[in-house]
Amino acid sequence: MTRPETILLVDDQPDFAKGLARLIGSRHPGLTIIQANDGESALSLLEEKSPGLVFTDLRMPGMNGQELLERARAVNPQLTVVMLSAHGDVGSAVAALKAGAYDFITKPVEPEDLFLALDKALERMRLLSENRRLRESVAEAETWRELIGESAGVLRLKQTISAVAGSNYTVLIQGESGTGKEVVARAIHRLSGRNDGPMVSVNCPAIPEQLLESELFGHVKGAFTGAERASKGLFLAAEGGTIHLDEIGDIPMNIQTKLLRVLQESEVRAVGGSDTVKVDVRIIASTNQHLENKIKDRTFREDLFYRLNVLTIHTPALRERRDDVPLLAVHFLRRTCKEMNLPERELTPDALGYLAGREWPGNVRELLNFMRRLVVFSPGEVIDARSARLVDNGAGMTEPPACVLGSYQEAKNQALEAFTRTYVDQLLGRTKGNISEAARVSGLERASLQKILKRLGIEAQDFKS
């Protein structure tokens, strides 16, 4: 983490650097000032002390100020750097500004010029620090909003996520289908130092085996039939951020071998290419399968498992956190009403008791889909246990869908929307989220079905088990 109140002075003349430190200290006695006399030492101090501001000479033997600037900002793009240059090097200083330096001062340094540049740089540094703090606060609030629950299991899960997020190690999330593994992956990314970078999530089984390698690692033009242009792949798309490989246990053996190379060497090779490219990505993998059993069956590589299983998180099943069912039910009820443009509804205590006492083998995802059906098939603003039992017994289809009385066309559109949502929900449940199979069963074109899913905000992968 950058320390905003620490300044690094870099100059190959130690006496000049000491004089500069005295001047800065007289203006801002509370600042911590550290010094280096060459570029290599400066990089070591940047890594060790994490200063927020650097004053560096442009001309130095060995690594000059321009190279130091480029290497330092590669590590910390928000680092504030002020260049010191002789009068004859103004052109070089301007080039440094274009490369990311914040300001430059000419030598010999006049105190007024130094203090003006220093005050501006400190203000920028503090603003960046405050903006980062606010972003982290927003990310944390958003993270815990998604992880709903107050049970001991959820509190332990939140503590584990907070601990894991602070590192760059690979994470393996294990848990039953529907327990929120993707929510946990997003939470880790938001709370990590990579939250300014992209978060790319890949549902591995949803991509045909013959295309998965290309999707992950990219391909060169002409690598295979239809490869009319090059693609960089999802690993490079996640550069500087996080990639989430969902259902890692289902990837084929040949992809496992290539994934192992990424974990070992931090580099990828595009399909059809001969060159490797370094990649800076944190990998989070998740699965609802017992990978140890797949290792015994020789369908999952043991060395890949140990590479993935650096940090492990278990997402608890809903039966392990029954106390959270009422909270989740109320949350999903509000969310569904908002999705369907309906007034907010209430659950009676007996309805909440019924839901809390019911078994949820499909976990949180099953509860979400049940609440959607409950809203569709329960007229009135209050939902009681009788309505819940009717829907649970499959009698909901005989109940009139809830609607806001208005024009005939509005009521018709709303009823049609409710029917479509219920039909698609049951269709995907029957076909376990297989779009091609769902299209065949329904008689719809695959593209038409995908448009319906997009309009309703339904994810086919939520129905895979």
Report on this structure.
With 465 residues, this protein is of the alpha/beta class. The protein has 3 domains: 3-134, 3-Layer(aba) Sandwich (Rossmann fold), CATH 3.40.50.2300; 147-316, Rossmann fold; 320-463, Helicase, Ruva Protein, domain 3 (Orthogonal Bundle). It is 51% helix and 14% strand. The protein has 19 helices and 14 strands. The strands form 4 sheets. A 5-stranded parallel sheet has the order 2-1-3-4-5, sandwiched between helices. A 5-stranded parallel sheet has the order 7-8-11-6-12. Strands 9-10 form a two-stranded antiparallel ribbon. β3, α3 (65-75) and β4 form a beta-alpha-beta unit. α10 packs across α12, α13 (325-339) crosses α15 (363-377) and α15 (363-377) packs antiparallel against α17 (408-431). The longest helix has 36 residues, at 111-146. The protein is elongated.
For the structure shown, list the relevant keywords.
about 475 residues, alpha/beta, Rossmann fold, Helicase, Ruva Protein, domain 3, 5-stranded parallel β-sheet, 14 strands, about 15% strand, elongated
Number of strands: 14
Strand content: 5-15%
What is the fourth-level CATH superfamily of the largest domain? P-loop containing nucleotide triphosphate hydrolases
Q: First CA to last CA: what distance?
A: 40 Å
Q: Which spans have pLDDT < 50 for at least 5 consecutive residues?
A: 395-405
* Count of domains: 3
Please compute the radius of gyration using only Cα atoms: 29 Å
Helix content: 40-55%
**CATH class wording of the largest domain:** Alpha Beta
Count of runs of 4 or more consecutive helical residues: 19
The CATH architecture designation of the largest domain is 3-Layer(aba) Sandwich
Cα shape: elongated
The class by helix and strand makeup works out as alpha/beta
